[in-house]
Amino acid sequence: MSTNLYRTKITIEVLSEGPFTTEDLAEINYAITEGDCSGVVNVETSEELSREEMSKALEKQGSDPEFLTSEQERQAERDGIIDRMKETGEL
Known about the structure:
Mean pLDDT: 86
Helix content: 40-55%
Largest sheet: 2 strands, antiparallel
Number of helices: 3
Order of helices and strands: EHEHH
Structural class: alpha+beta
């Protein structure tokens, strides 16, 4: 089963009395929903990526491209390893 992969860029505008420097999403959310700031969230772009493009984007973010592998694919790989180990007598 193929999954569509996307990169979405979102901007957050915060209006505050002084400089607003946090990058923590929970803190930003609190500041604009419960705190003394006003804010708006906008989806700027959403683009479909190929598996190769997604893999490169994940690496650029410092994330493991293993994210792309479904649990079914991981289980099939494990099953294949177990089958090969049984065939060679390692298991």
